[in-house]
Amino acid sequence: MSHQHEDQGAVVCIGVFDGVHKGHQALISRAHEIAQEMGVPLIALTFDPHPLVVVRPELAPESLASLAERRFLLFNAGVDDVFVLPFTPEVATWDPETFIHRVLHDKLHVRAVVIGQNFRFGHQGAGDIVTLREAGERYHFSVTEVGLAADAEPWSSTRVRKALAAGDLGEAAKVLGRNYDLSGVVVHGDHRGRELGYPTANLELVGNPVVPADGVYAGWLVVGADRLPAAISVGTNPQFAGAQRRVETYALDRTDLDLYGQEVTVIFVEYLRGQLIFEGLEGLIEQMAADVTKTRAVLGLS
After folding, report:
1. CATH number of the domain that residue 58 is part of
2. CA within 20 to 30 Å of 133's CA: 19, 232, 243, 289, which one?
3. What residues make up the domain containing 192?
4. Residues 107-137: pLDDT tens digits?
5. From the candidates 90, 248, 279, 286, which is the catalytic residue?
6. Cα separation values, 122 from 61, 88, 95, 127, 157, Å
């Protein structure tokens, strides 16, 4: 954090911002206007881990973006700085006043707060917009509540999770404003794809990310500056009685890639089919060839 905020203060928008979807983008865009009018920086205040991980772990959702991705997406959406409050069991006990005083006032020198509808904070969610407005009178900051941005229904992280669980990538992309992706380090799998002529990059998933529904997808494999067309398989590998859910990606026509140990991103574009079990390997290999043909068509390469 730079110290320039201290003399001039800042506009602070608050949220978990998981996935930084179009609803979050609308909130940030409004906060950005306010920051420009006031001539001060815009800070996104977010929490890590998700507060529910600490408060009600059994209800904690899978995440739509790692903290690093969330930061990147927040900067992309137009904030000047990201302040991550580590959400610890101690922070979970803070009453709203403690949070406002320690974080918003002392640390961020807040001059305006921008929140989404339904925003609650403090121990057991005791704080709301009324609490913030009362504190704003004492600490001299304004409070703006932004209604939930929507198409037919509000854009939300829950809606994205539901869409991904159903393999509905179009709906997920509509809410996110981009195609869903997963990043991770490539680790050794069973090397079966290599033997079949379709070597795949097996992604190690860290944290608790949302993995789309089992099946085969058309998409892209991003390695450094390269964006390679790819067929992606998600599932437990039923053909070989696998038990562990995996994300395995075949970069079309590339049998020369050695990606072990590299960080890659897999972008999901379209669901092609569910996981199938074939009588013999010929059937599987024929199907893989068909998946590749369909992937080319979806990505506009054929």
Report:
1. 3.40.50.620
2. 19
3. 180-298
4. 999 999 999 988 999 998 899 999 999 999 9
5. 248
6. 19, 12, 5, 6, 21
